[in-house]
Amino acid sequence: xxxxxxxxxxxxxxxxxxxxxxxxxxxxxxxxxxxxxxxxxxxxxxxxxxxxxxxxxxxxxxxxxxxxxxxxxxxxxxxxxxxxxxxxxxxxxxxxxxxxxxxxxxxxxxxxxxxxxxxxxxxxxxxxxxxxxxxxxxxxxxxxxxxxxxxxxxxxxxxxxxxxxxxxxxxxxxxxxxxxxxxxxxxxxxxxxxxxxxxxxxxxxxxxxxxxxxxxxxxxxxxxxxxxxxxxxxxxxxxxxxxxxxxxxxxxxxxxxxxxxxxxxxxxxxxxxxxxxxxxxxxxxxxxxxxxxxxxxxxxxxxxxxxxxxxxxxxxxxxxxxxxxxxxxxxxxxxxxxxxxxxxxxxxxxxxxxxxxxxxxxxxxxxxxxxxxxxxxxxxxxxxxxxxxxxxxxxxxxxxxxxxxxxxxxxxxxxxxxxxxxxxxxxxxxxxxxxxxxxxxxxxxxxxxxxxxxxxxxxxxxxxxxxxxxxxxxxxxxxxxxxxxxxxxxxxxxxxxxxxxxxxxxxxxxxxxxxxxxxxxxxxxxxxxxxxxxxxxxxxxxxxxxxxxxxxxxxxxxxxxxxxxxxxxxxxxxxxxxxxxxxxxxxxxxxxxxxxxxxxxxxxxxxxxxxxxxxxxxxxxxxxxxxxxxxxxxxxxxxxxxxxxxxxxxxxxxxxxxxxxxxxxxxxxxxxxxxxxxxxxxxxxxxxxxxxxxx
Length: 695
Description:
Layout: H1 2-7, H2 10-59, H3 61-65, H4 69-77, E1 85-92, E2 97-102, H5 116-125, H6 129-133, E3 141-144, E4 148-157, E5 160-170, H7 172-224, H8 238-336, H9 344-367, E6 376-379, H10 380-388, H11 391-399, E7 403-409, E8 415-418, H12 420-436, E9 442-453, E10 466-475, H13 482-485, H14 506-516, E11 520-526, E12 530-538, H15 542-547, E13 565-569, H16 573-585, E14 589-593, H17 596-605, E15 610-614, H18 623-633, E16 639-643, H19 649-656, E17 662-664, H20 669-681, E18 691-692
Parallel strand pairs: 7-9, 13-14, 13-15, 15-16, 16-17, 17-18
Antiparallel strand pairs: 1-2, 1-5, 3-4, 4-5, 6-8, 9-10, 10-12, 11-12
């Protein structure tokens, strides 16, 4: 419809618009007029009848009170002055008809029903008269139907309803007035249409005709391409300005056509060039945004791991100091107890508990990413086989009797450089996790083979190409859900029941160990089918493995001293006491100081055979700075380094300066005695590449 109207000539459009505007105006005004008349009449009629009902009610109070219906009837007879009233009546408070009035002019047309008033009252009240009689808040009610208006007015005496006045009025006068108003509106509409027609004819001559001439000229120019034609202007209104603009346009079109053709060619070249530049920039921007998002995610993860690592390192250091007494003192107590003492077993249990706690602390140090200790050649195949035959594996199988573990090795020599302690812990965590994923039983398969990596693994942007030893651990358990795969290496993230399945650090320790050994980790898992972890470790060349010195076998009993003097330097008084008691028990003469500054002052006055130096001391000088000051006073001073942290760059720096073995807290009597004896027997200038630890 809109499209058809848009295609009509302007002359027809103008006629339609004027006609529609006139019609709309008449309809709106007429509707307003009719509505106002009807509402005004209804309102006035309602007000008048309500007033009459109220007056009748007031005048009928005495008649109702003293039960005089004749008086009430005379009062109702006064309503004869209102010709619209058909019936009127007075009801007592029980709803019985007390008095009635019937219009004699209308009663012949409308049959009278004595129950009418009660029915009207009940219909409009929606309840019984007895129920409504007790209400104190009733107001005038009026109700319109198609032919009548019903008025219901309660009669109130001292706040108590004693009856009702009911009036019914005929609405014939309202209908007559409505019909008269409609006829008036129709007459005005006809008059307005005539005026609109005259206005339209005038508009045609002054607006449409000049526009029609302009249209004819435009069609002629379009067909003949003759830009010398001009339109004659007859008036100076907006149409005249339009004609002037059209004539000016004709005079410039030919010149602009030539310029436009030239600019169009240049623009096409510029657009093509700019489009190419924007496409390249957009592609580059997408790459940069993707790279930035990736870097941001890596930075956020690194910051989170660094914060957790710092927290874990501090907690681990403090716990190791606390555990030193639990691990060290039992050796001294056991040495003084007879073999048949009933205290030997509980004291041994205390020490074992301390060693287990130290193992958990070691997990925190792995989380802290403090690095692997001095690497040594490790036969990965032998390490796994020894673990499968060890007590930890037997303990795991005692909990999971319906699980079968087997190893499939395709290599004879599986040497890598690393830490046997960390690697065994890694294997233990993976096997335990696999066992816990098979509550109904299943099979764990451990594979060892050679593999060459020449492309990145999932989760790694780049890798070092080369030969690797591939350690795989597969289970037939429940598998890992997709939403958990991205988070299994996060610290303290676990789907297991806390308190029953470890600390939540197991997979973090695995990830940290693989990272510390310059390796890579990959995983395949399907819910309901099982999980396989693939661990890639750089293969150690045979020549380097043969050049590394073999490890010394552990001694059956701790080596004893010959009264050598040893200075114990530690900012913790308890640590000084533990070390001094152990050293004294194995034949040395210990002295203790609680700071690096105190150690320097002591050595200025009295030389010692060996320095037992803590690396982390606060406040004041730490171990590295203390050692630098000591070798200025006593060059070549034999020193054993002690720390509750894993081996750090500062420890390695101290060893490069001449310090000896690194002893990890908490240590046993045997660890300390072996480290001290080894350093005293070490030839000067020999580089120490050993580390003593209970883990």
